[in-house]
Amino acid sequence: MKRRKLTRKQKAELFLAYDGKCAACGVKLHVTDAEWDHIKERRMAVDEEDAKAREQLSNFQPLCTQCHREKTDDWTGKHAKAERQGGRTGQQARRQRKKADGSYRGIPSPANPWPAKGTRKIQSRGFGA
Question: Which of 106, 10, 3 is nearest to 62 (CA)?
Fold first, then answer.
């Protein structure tokens, strides 16, 4: 689904609904300085219907630049972790893709520097030396 662009009228309605203040810290904003943020992150939508719901006007809020950056940074890490845990990115996902195309050779085990068990002779200096 394509990302929604807010019209001037919609921005004005939201701006007035939040009394011209940042939704996070409450600092007074100018209409042109406000950054329009999704309250429920759009990229975390589970399906197309959920993505449409997250594009509703009620899911937007005005934030100041600093609050928007902090929220985005926080959610970027959470999103990356969710992708890794879901097996869509990261080392496990790469292994699964390689297994599927037949190029996965497994994790190489390090060479054992010790001789096989039972082949090494016990050496001693003796009693008289």
Answer: 10
